[in-house]
């Protein structure tokens, strides 16, 4: 029988730094909840809003797969691999921190907020050579169907990371339903609702709710309203 865990939106950790407002689905920085450290290999899911003209100064990471999905506005990226790029709504960005990188993320628009998801996944290989990639996604490819945006395979759809992980975005009209099949035994899926109401089997989820499901081969997803959501399939043991 499938195992599940529900994280309602209003139970997330919250940090207000003035220029940065961040909701934490899992323990992060000053927010610590021993019951919410991770979901399998998924370690961080932060729902961030950055004020105009502000951002994250240069800081280090190592041995982590870091994924950013902008939801509104543009975020300027710089790193110690000499990458300078802008990621915007409709893009996905990935960094394999590996042996160590420094990077900064900055909202160069003085007047408008940037909203984005910051996601960390534990890698299955340590001390790899750091790498950076980004991709512009086609929103039409997830209308009433699942759009794969991340996988373990460089030749597959979306970006890739050093982990047996598959991410999918969905943008469903009310009443649309699909069955999701997990890729491998021992995996689980963490569902994050970006907008609207979604049912996973019989569990109703609302905007910004999170829901983990594992010990199952698959599950049904039904949009109870027009809805947008992210599915993150990861190993439960790693």
Automatic annotation (TrEMBL):
Residues 14-121 form the Pirin N-terminal domain. This is Pirin family protein. The lineage of its organism: Bacteria, Pseudomonadati, Bacteroidota, Sphingobacteriia, Sphingobacteriales. It holds the Pfam family Pirin. It comes from Mucilaginibacter conchicola. Belongs to the pirin family. Fe cation binds at residues 59, 61, 103, 105. Residues 149-234 form the Quercetin 2,3-dioxygenase C-terminal cupin domain. It comes from the Bacteria. Binds 1 Fe cation per subunit. Its cofactor is Fe cation. Keywords: Iron, Metal-binding. GO terms for molecular function: metal ion binding.
């Amino acid at each position: 029988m499938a195992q599940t865990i529900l994280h309602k939106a209003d139970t997330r950790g919250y940090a207000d730094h003035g220029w940065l407002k961040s909701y934490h689905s899992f323990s992060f920085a000053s927010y610590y909840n021993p019951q919410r450290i991770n979901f399998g290999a998924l370690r961080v899911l932060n729902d961030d809003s950055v004020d105009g003209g502000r951002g994250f100064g240069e800081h280090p990471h190592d041995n982590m797969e870091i994924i950013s999905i902008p939801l509104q506005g543009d975020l300027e990226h710089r790193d110690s691999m000499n990458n300078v790029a802008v990621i915007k709504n409709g893009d996905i960005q990935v960094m394999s921190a590996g042996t160590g990188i420094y990077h900064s993320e900055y909202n160069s628009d003085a007047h408008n907020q940037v909203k984005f998801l910051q996601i960390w996944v534990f890698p299955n290989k340590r001390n790899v050579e750091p790498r950076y990639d980004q991709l512009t996604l086609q929103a039409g490819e997830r209308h009433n169907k699942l759009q794969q945006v991340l996988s373990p395979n460089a030749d597959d759809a979306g970006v890739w990371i050093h982990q047996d992980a598959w991410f999918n975005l969905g943008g469903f009209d009310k009443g649309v339903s699909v069955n999701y099949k997990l890729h491998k035994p021992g995996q689980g899926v963490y569902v994050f609702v970006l907008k609207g109401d979604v049912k996973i089997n019989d569990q109703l989820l609302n905007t910004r709710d999170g829901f983990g499901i594992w010990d199952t081969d698959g599950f049904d997803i039904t949009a109870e309203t027009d809805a947008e959501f992210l599915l993150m399939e990861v190993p439960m043991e790693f």
